[in-house]
Every structure is written in C-alpha cells, then in structure tokens.
Input
Amino acid sequence: MKTLANRIAIVTGASAGIGYATAKALVSEGARVVASARRADRLAALSAELGAPDLCLTVPSDASKPDAIDALVERALAFGNGRVDIVIANAGHGLAGGVVSSDRSRWQEMYELNVIGAAHLMRRAAEIMIPNQAGDIVAIGSVVGINISPFSAFYGSTKFAVSAIAEGLRREICRHRVRVTVIRPAIVESEFQAVAGYTEDNFGVTVKRYGQLLVPKEVADAITFVLRQPPHVHINELTIRPVGQDYP
Output
C-alpha cells in the first residue's frame, strides 16, 4: 500500500521546480493533490503529464493574495470531501543582491508572496487540521534563511521569517498532533535563478566549485520522506545540500 494513499494535499508554486516535482511525487505516493500556481499553461502540462485528473486538481491562483489562498483552500476542501491532510507552502521567488544591491522595487511583492502568503496558507491549514488532530504543514525555506549571504540577503530575510513563523506555529499546535516542518534546500537547478536575477557573473562562477547541484526531484523526495514518518515522529527541520556546497 502506498504510504500517502488517499491523503489530500495542497502544493503551491506547482508550475515548475520543487513544486512541480513535489506534486508528482505526492501523486506517486498515492496522495490526491491540489496543485496551484499563477501559470495556468504550466499547470495544464503537469495535469497532462500525470494523466490522472481524479488524483490532481490544478487551480490557477496567486499565492501572495489572502483572498486567493482562501479560495484555493475551499477548492481543496471540496476536492477532498472536507479534508486537507498535507499543505506544502512552496510558492516564492528569490532576489539577487543584498540590502544595498538588490532591486528595491521588488521588496514588497517578494514579502507578500514569500512571507505573508506563506503565513496565511499555514494559518488556514492549521485551522483545518487542529479539529482533526492530524496533518502536515511543510514550508519551503532555504539555507540562506539561516546562513545569511550578502549576495541574497533580502531574499534570505524572507526565508528567515518563514522559518520563524513555522517554528512558532509548530510550538503553538503540536499538542494537536499537527506536524510543521521547514525544508531548507541549498542550490537547486530550476527556473529560480533566472527569476531571481542571478547570472553567470554574480552566481555561476561561485557555484561551479560545488560540483553537481540538486535537482527538484531530490527536494521532493526529502519532502515525501518527512511525510512518510509515523504520526508520532516529527522531523521538523531538514536541510538538503549538494555535497560540495560548503556555504551558505
């Protein structure tokens, strides 16, 4: 029997990278997934790849908007006949540069997505899971949220905040048997770098010495590992790096 059989999961940021890989991994483990992102065409590609509409509902949505998150949660509850068992707060984007060198015009919208949107989704998940005395909330953090880098300091501050919110939530609701986990990936090969504004000059040269980098499926495998644990076992923090990455 598949470990996550019939569990209902929400995955945000599911149009590419870690979110896309995680939606696929959860379906392969038997979960029924509500996959959300802003790009409807990429969600359609995910649905076509899975070929199982009864196992994956795609919902175009903006994870930075509380009203949109509320609507997504309602769709998931309908899909799951009143249940949501797993929530992966993955949607987010990076930003090259530190406090002085990053693009100031992008600060607010990054906080609205990476922090406020993630926190609102985690809160909604907790409200659903507490009465059921079970559930998993997984927030995607980053190694730069604990090892602040001058090359991505403002982005790192959002992941520092996500880690703090998730840990505060864990302490608040663990007595209700709800697990809250932060997954902190290091460098993962995906669209993330281009969206954040990283280039060969400000990023590529540095990472060459790390050797083989992570791919999204490897982070998705770490997430499913956490979810497969017995209900009384809680891996509340997990960091995953390429073996050659010494910092951050």
